[in-house]
Amino acid sequence: MNAPVDVSFFERAAKPLSSYRPYWAKRFGVAPFLPMSRLEMEQLGWDSCDIVLVTGDAYVDHPSFGMAVVGRVLEAQGFRVGIIAQPDWHSADAFKALGRPNLFWGVTAGNMDSMINRYTADRKIRSDDAYTPGDVGGRRPDRAAIVYSQRCREAYKDVPIVLGGIEASLRRIAHYDYWSDKVRRSIVVDSKCDLLLYGNAERALVEVAHRLAARQALEQITDVRGTAFVRRSGDPSGDAWFEIDSTEIDRPGRVEQHLSPYQSSAEQARARGGECSAGAAEQTPARPMVFQRSASTPVPRERSVIRLPSYEQVKSDPVLYAHASRVLHLETNPGNARALVQAHGVGTAARDVWINPPPIPLSTAEMDEVFDLPYARSPHPAYADAQGRFDGASKIPAWEMIRFSVNIMRGCFGGCSFCSITEHEGRIIQSRSEDSIIRELQEIRDKVEGFTGVISDLGGPTANMYRLGCKSPAIESACRKPSCVYPGICSNLHTDHDPLIQIYRRARALRGIKKVLIGSGLRYDLALKSPEYVKELVQHHVGGYLKIAPEHTEAGPLSKMMKPGIGSYERFAQLFRKYSEEAGKKQYLIPYFIAAHPGTSDQDMMNLALWLKKNGFRADQVQTFYPSPMASATAMYHSALNPLKGIHRDARAERVDVVRGEKRRRLHKAFLRYHDPNNWPLLREALKQMGRADLIGNGKQHLIPTFQPLGDGGYQSARRKNSTPVTAGGRLLTQHTGLPPRPRAAAQGGRKPKSPA
Q1: pLDDT digits (tens, 9 = 90+) for 441-497
Q2: More reliable by pLDDT, 254 or 474
Q3: Residue 702 and residue 696: Cα distance in Å, rounded?
Q4: CB 659 within 8 A of CB 600
């Protein structure tokens, strides 16, 4: 269900970004940086901002930072855009810095969900923040999108609030929240925003901005794809929608009876066992004009809306939560997705969160427009030190990571259940043109201070999906598969890597470019379809180490992750070694693995540890599964059911082994770091309980030794606490584990920032 280039359905369904008449303020021209102060506004000749963007990240004017993309896209449409970055949220004062926005606030938590940004998988507070000068943590509040929206309302209560970014995208419906261990309401309700934009938002944002500039009431903007909002009145357009109960699509078993939309609030409250005051008895729940469908009624798909179980239902019933998650993921193809609606509250408090179908992907020409905008490719000068440098306390790690990289595409059709890329960017690959990519490389070479000739990455969410997609537009627009590469690569998927090979070769041939590295994660099962691509990659674009993410070795967890078997990794590793040897280079694969993913047994982790030991890998850092909002794996974690299959209440349901509790999560991490002496006591205990004490010993066939290091680096027998140290720790450890010095496996998770919008 993916498009290598523009597809006729999407061309017909979307208005091009370049087709709008520019707003009158375009006469002010292009700002060197979008202003962050009144002084900068005055220097630009502005008396006010049409739109003020509030973000939880430092402002870096670079196309890998969402607010920079949003700001420059709106500027290109003629609007005056200001930015308030990482404001003090304890009062509304900081939100008044640029004055009252003429049109609307644009609010985002930043390039990451604020809770994932601040807390580890063990719910411990991080001390760092890569999107903050000096890598200092704590510069944004928890649930930043909600807090910022509240402060914007306090600052100028009559200005509309448009919420966007990844935090908003992943929390657009009722969702399980790992940090509070409960199901929370849609962020549309909690933030009290007027409109939420999800996914890559350029198309929706430009349309909303022009309609608001034309003095259209925000309450009337209900037909924009990629938006969500709370319904407080009848359908202003007067159009009829046909409502489908989600349980007709996917049956989770007996559910609460669906109430008629024609009942009064009092009748609905009584049906739910509640009451409603007489004064509000005739108020109807907030929803558009909806007709219930009869069995004989033909339903036009474009006028259909699916009613998910309400927030109250999914909060109290994990089965219905898994069902709602499954239905949402089935409705993600822009070619056939239907609108969704979910009630929040009962009686007089009842409101509907309405979610329009996903946005139409950008064409190649539109992608070029977005990435060719006049980005300064630098942090705002306000962050620089007295010498104008971005060092020490002014250094922004996320910018340092991507300053010499180029994003060539968006989207991912891998569908990995633990990943949020699909929920945010979608499965359809949106690729830039080759010329646009080369222009950006030349701009980095000629304009970016400190460039030494090495491009750190030429990629995207996945390194090798550039221009890959469905062979048939008709099949693509009808497809509802969650992945194009699981359980195997779809026969309709176009897998030609030649365009990507051509870009690599053209890029490394540029004058002044010494090396083009590939830092994005590689989809190795796809790469196997093109040995020529693997050869080009390995012999010219690996700087000694290549990141790759098998995630696990065992079929159980891999099936819940929707990842290929370890055999694909091993075939790729063979090609990697072959082409490295041909080039006379000593290079290493750095595999990523996840501990404690739903569906992973203790036996699975033990087998993974044995595989690591056999292949000579020592994981320096380990990523424990992190239940991000709205991911399919998070639904598994919360419900212990598999939403990748049908949801049932009886024996037909597939139950999932969920790794909960600190001790068991520590055990799974310990298996990945089997070589760490600090983990040996826990592993010895676990192996004995599992009936695998045969893996404890001092030979190469054993997983962990019987000896424990003393504080001075010597070793002590696990059986005789008073035994004499036999030798120095490091030397004996190598002997016991049978591991020669090898490159260490990296942590799953520390992925580079890729966002825009």
Answers
A1: 999 999 999 999 999 999 999 999 999 999 998 999 999 999 999 999 999 999 999
A2: 474
A3: 6
A4: yes
Provide the residue ranges of all domains of the chain, joining segments of one domain with +: 1-226+367-401, 228-358, 404-675
Question: What does the block give as tokens for 311?
Answer: 């927030």
Q: Is the dihedral of CA 616, 621, 625, 630 positive or negative?
A: negative
10 Å Cβ neighbour count for 315?
A: 17
Of all residues in the chain, the percent with pLDDT exceeding 70 is 85
- Beta-strand (E) ranges in 232-328? 241-245, 290-292, 304-307
- What percent of the chain is helix, strand and coil (3-state, nearest 5)? 35, 15, 50
User: What's the CATH architecture for 404-675?
Assistant: Alpha-Beta Horseshoe (3.80)
Give per-residue pLDDT as tens, 522-567.
999 999 999 999 999 999 999 999 989 999 999 999 999 999 999 9
- Among 725, 732, 724, residue whose Cα is nearest residue 705: 732
More confident residue, 266 or 79: 79
Q: Could you tell me whether strands 339-344 and 351-355 are parallel, antiparallel, or unpaired per DSSP bridges?
A: antiparallel
Total length of the chain: 757
Could you write out the DSSP letters of every residue in 458-522?
A: EESSSTT-TT-EES-HHHHHH---S-SSSSS--TTEE---HHHHHHHHHHHTSTT--EE---SPB
What are the tens digits of pLDDT across the range 357-405? 999 999 999 999 999 999 999 999 999 987 888 888 889 999 999 999 9
Contacts (Cβ under 8 Å, ≥6 apart) of 298: none
Residues contacting residue 338 through CB under 8 Å, at least 6 positions apart: 244, 301, 304, 305, 306, 331, 357
Question: Helices then strands (H, E): number in the chain?
Answer: 26, 30
C-alpha to C-alpha distance for 297 and 745, rounded to whole angstroms: 57
End-to-end CA distance of the chain: give it in Å, rounded. Answer: 22
Q: Indicate whether 209 pLDDT > 60.
A: yes
Which residue do the tokens 């430092």 mark?
Answer: 58
Determine the angle formed by the axes of helices 364-371 and 202-213, rounding to 10 degrees: 70
For residue 491, how many other CB atoms are within 10 A of its CB?
Answer: 6
Structure tokens at 86: 């990482």
Distances (CA, A) of 559 to 89, 495, 715: 43, 23, 40
Give me the pLDDT at residue 619, please. Answer: 81
Distance CA 726, CA 709 (A): 10
pLDDT category of residue 650 using cuts at 50, 70 and 90: confident
Number of Cβ atoms within 10 Å of the Cβ of 461? 24
Let me know: does 339 contact 354? Beta carbons within 8 Å.
yes
Phi, psi of 587 (to 5 degrees): -130, 160
Q: Please give the distance of CA 718 from its chain centroid, rounded to a whole number.
A: 44
In DSSP terms, 291 is beta-bridged to 242
Beta bridge partners of 81: 51
- In the predicted model, what is the mean pLDDT of the chain? 87
Q: Which of 258-262, 313-317, 712-716, 745-749 has the lowest mean pLDDT?
A: 745-749
